[in-house]
Structures are given as structure tokens and as C-alpha cells.
Amino acid sequence: MNYWDYIQVESLLSLQQGLHDDGTEPENDEVLFITVHQIYELWFKLVLRELSTARALFRRNPVPDQALADATRSLRRCVRIFEVAAHHWSVVETLTTRDYLAFRDKLVGASGFQSAQVRELEILLGLDDRQRLSCMGEGSYKEALRGDVGDQSPALARVQRRLAEGASYRSALYHWLARTPVDGSSDPAHVDAYLDKFVEAHRKQKKLLLERSRQFTSTPEEVAVLEQRYARDIDQAAAFLRAEDIEDEGERRHRKHVRAALVFIESHRELPRLAWPREVLDTTLNLEQAFIIWRQRHARMVERMIGRRTGTGGSGGVDYLDQTALKYRVFEDLWSVRTILLRRELVPELENAADYRFRVED
Ligand code: HEM
Questions:
Q1: Of 197, 248, 311, 351, which shows the fewest CB atoms inside 10 Å?
Q2: Distance between Cα 225 and ligand 1 center (Å)
């Protein structure tokens, strides 16, 4: 065996011709443009593989402890890839606006918006179609993946295959969380009692805050404003924990347990047997954060490169990209729970803390 055959170097290096199928050579700038896209597509390929692995592990019921370590390993790799990939935008930025405009008009109609692997990534992670922005005057992102005469394309086939795989990583992760015992039990009454205690702890915290603020506020009006603000905070925490924002009753029950498990794991991070669950949550959040930063960084590169003009795919350009970075959230509960976590001394005592220690033989 040799390096060039195994890595298929010659095939790889022959793929940067772009539209120059007449034997002419593309300029350096265009080769750079094509190459960076290809490098990104290769990173996406690896991320998709790792995420599929993590999802398969979470689809098991029960999820064995060892699987949590394996899934975390896959997720960490995805995070590193996105972190590294976000730096590649600075290579694209070695193109000036004029350099890019020299070949941009040839691309009209073609856009990263048609990157099937990015759509696969969103689907596999669990982005809900209802969250998608409609921006291209087209029926959906799937329409943009159709071929010239509206027919099937390899890109669309890829996305359809991914959709046919069913439940996303988010769904698998949330089902695992919904089975996770909270302070030693998954019984709904027990979980409700845990949540009540947590809301009560919030009330205590706000009472302490109010007592402290009274020393610094002079007028009853100021105190009344604070009272109102704190009461609103408590109501919001309670509403979130009881999943009141979710209409469907079955889904509400499911998400209530998901949120209880999140609060429980985050509030008792130091317990030895929560070590892997904690890692899974941290790494999942890291992954979404890295993806968002990648989106934001792409938007800044685009703004620098073409200003606020319309994209080659027909969207509003930078405005659209900024909106995706803001709105395309998959693991909302993992983010939202941070708003209501309490400092350690205020976290309610557990009834079954002993269940979460490692058992050591005497
Ligand atoms: C000069 C370089 C680039 C410019 C000016 C640019 C510009 C844009 C614009 C304006 C959009 C919005 C859709 C549209 O109207 O076309 C877009 C979308 C996109 N671009 Fe780029 N892009 C560049 C390079 C890249 C590279 C190297 C990648 C790597 C794969 C990439 C991936 C994407 C993706 C995935 C989308 C879809 C985003 C979404 O819908 O969430 N772009 N790009």
C-alpha cells in the first residue's frame, strides 16, 4: 500500500476545476473558493457520522452507562470540528470583495443554501421544520434542492434519506432524559414533588434578595417594583418547569420530565453517578454553541465580502444568515434551564443522594 492510493490524492486534487470544463485553469481565487467549500463538506461528513453514532447510542433503551462515554466522545469530536471549521472563514477572507466579484456572477442560482449536508445536520440534530425561516420565495429548503427542471437531485435524495431515518438526536436525548430518575425515582408524583421543592427554593431566594434590597432602596415604590419583578421571575420559573408553554398534554408531561431531569443533573453536578450525564449535556450544549458561532462567523465573513446585497441563492443575504444564527435553536431546554438554576446552598436537599455515589466495597 502507498499513501497516494490509499488517500486517493490524485482524484482529490482533480476536483477543483469548477466550471472550467474547457481545459482552462481557474484563477487562484476561485480554486480557493471551491477548495474551502469542499473542506467544509468533508468536515460535515465527519460530523454527520459522529452524530449518527451518538443518536444510535441514545436510541437504546435503557442507555448503558458505557454508551454515555462513547456518545460524549463522538459529540466532542463534532465540537472540535466546528471550532476548527469556524476559523476557516478567515481563509475565505483573504479574498477581497473585488476578487470575489470577479467570478461571483457565474454562481447565480448556486448557493451554500443548497448544501444538503448542512440540512442533514439540522435534521439529524433535530431542528423542527416549523422553526425554519422562509426566505427564498420557495416552498421550502427542499424545493431549493431540486434539479434544474424541478426533478430529483442527489442533494434532495440525501436529505430525503436522512428524513426517513426518523427520530433525531434531540428526540433520542430527550427520551433518555424523560426516563432519567429524578432524585432516585421516575414516578411522576415524585418528580412533581421535586419540582415543587425547586420552585419553593426560588421563592426563598427571592425573599432573601428582597430583604437585602430593602437595605438599599429608599421608597416603597422601589420595593414594590422589585416585588413585582421577583414574583414574575418565580412565575416564569414555575411555568417553565411545569412546561406550561406546551399545549399537547402528552408532550407537556414528557417535557416536564425532561426539564426536571435537566434541573436535577445541573443542580447536583458534583454527584459521582451524574458525571457522564453531565458530560453529555455539557457537550451537547457545546456542540450547539459551536454550530451557532460557525453560523455567526459565516455571516460576518459574508457581510465583509458582499455587504448586504442579495445572496446568489436569492435570500436577503446577511440578514437571513443572522436570523438563522438567532432562531435555529435545537436544544432550547438545555439553554433555558440556565435561567432558573440556583446557587448551591439554595438547591433543595435530595432524599436519595446515596443512590448517586459510587459504591465502594469495604
Ligand atoms: C465568498 C464566500 C461566501 C459568500 C459571499 C457566501 C454567502 C452566502 C449567502 C448570502 C447565503 C444566504 C443564502 C443565499 O441567498 O445564497 C449563504 C448561505 C450559506 N452558505 Fe455561504 N457564502 C460563502 C461561502 C460559503 C462557504 C465556504 C460555505 C461552506 C460550506 C458556505 C455555506 C453556506 C451554507 C451552509 C449556507 C446556508 C445557510 C442556511 O440556510 O442556514 N458559504 N452564503
A1: 248
A2: 46
pLDDT tens digits, residue range 148-185? 777 889 999 999 999 999 999 999 999 999 999 999 99
In whole angstroms, what is the distance from residue 214 CA to residue 222 CA? 9
Handedness of CA 249, 253, 256, 262 (dihedral sign): negative
What single letter denotes the amino acid at residue 325? A
- Mean of the per-residue pLDDT values for the chain? 94
Radius of gyration of the chain (CA): 25
pLDDT for the residue numbered 48: 98
Give CA separation, 108 vs 35, 147, 260, 292, 310, in Å. 19, 14, 49, 26, 11
Phi–psi pair at 162, nearest 5 degrees? -65, -40
Expressed in angstroms and rounded, the spacing between residue 89 Cα and the centre of ligand 1 is 11
Omega before 64 within 30 of 0, i.e. cis: no
Taking the C-alpha atoms of residue 33 and residue 47, their distance in angstroms, rounded to an integer, is: 21
pLDDT value for 342:
97
Spatial contact of 48 and 75, defined as CB atoms under 8 Å apart: no
Cell of 69: 462515554
Q: How far is CA 204 from the centre of its chain?
A: 33
- Give the position of cell 473558493: 33
Atom of ligand 1 nearest to the CA of 320: 12
Low-confidence ranges of the chain (pLDDT < 70): 136-139, 360-362
Tell me how far the alpha carbon of residue 111 lies from the centroid of ligand 1, in angstroms.
6
Closest residue to atom 39 of ligand 1, CA basis: 113
- At which residue does the C-alpha cell 470544463 appear? 21
Nearest CA to ligand 1 atom 43: 112
Q: Set out the domains of the chain in order of their start, with CATH numbers.
A: 18-356 (1.20.58.480)
DSSP per residue over 99-129, as a string? HHHHHHGGGTT--GGG-HHHHHHHHHHT--G
Does the beta carbon of 115 lie inside 6 Å of ligand 1? yes
DSSP state of 314: S
Grid cell, residue 178, equals 424523560
Which residue is associated with the grid cell 437595605? Answer: 215
Mutate to test the pocket of ligand 1, among 111, 309, 326 (most ligand atoms within 8 A of CB): 111
What is this structure's pTM? 0.95
